[in-house]
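Dock heme C; give full complex structure.
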Amino acid sequence: MLRALSISAVAAAAAIGVAFAAGEGGHVEDYPFSFDSPVGAYDMSAVQRGYQVYAEVCASCHAVEHLAYRHLGEEGGPFAAYMVRNHETGEEEMVVRKPEHGGRFVDVTENPYVRAIAQAATISDIDPNTGQPVDRPGRISDKFLPPFPNEIAARAGNGGAYPPDLSVIVLARHGGADYVRALLLGYTMEMDGDLLVNTAFPGGRIAMPPPLTDGRVTYSDGTEATVEQQANDVATFLQWAADPHMEQRKRTGLVVLAFLAVLSGLLYLAYKQVWRGESH
Ligand code: HEC
């Protein structure tokens, strides 16, 4: 009896194992992103490239409703600009990368890169003088333009499936950036009805067509745009979008830890001093 039970338990376990192997999804590889460790920072070049992937590929289906254009140019953002002095010419020039030393942060209202990105969007607005609907170029204070006006239109454009907002997707899904990366790399060539088999998507079948192919974007920094490179970069961008102040937060955390360590040391010395000569 007992033996029969244990045999059937082993058989059941094996069957579950086979079901997983057959592609039930949920397989997410742990990838060593630069921001993973308690002192890790964003790789800003990756955030910039990831923005390009989002803007040129994902933005046709997915909104990022929490992001405004100005966020790109704020300190800690991928297009934050700084004035630095060129040692050879003595002239001040603008760079889109935090210099190692010095450099004066360019207020985002003066940032030409962010202005250009915002102005490329066409925003539907109300003319303040006539009250009539008008289209105008985007301003840096505008939120990123969503691809669809509402959920019904988004579903209608995607065969009934809803492309979720991506601004906090890494916080909303178990595995975070690792999950987004694995999802983009998890396509098999198989179909199941209208759905595509994906090893990372819970349930293993997804309505999103594989968005990336090799060379889908052309990176301006010359990085080769393999599917994996684009997946790493857009996952990094989405992590930044969901948590733009991470670096500041980690720095504050370290200062607090250092303070507590010193305080503990002082308290210990005070304790020794107070109880000196007492037996207890
Ligand atoms: C052609 C439209 C389209 C494009 C382009 C697209 N997606 Fe999607 N995406 C979808 C749809 C539709 C879903 C919903 C899938 C489902 O529910 O089966 C989805 C779902 C997702 C999800 C959520 C999966 C989950 O756990 O719910 C993520 C993350 C995602 N897409 C990321 C991206 C990224 C990153 C890009 C750009 C590289 C991208 N998508 C490009 C249509 C698209």
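Observed: The two ends are 63 Å apart (CA to CA).
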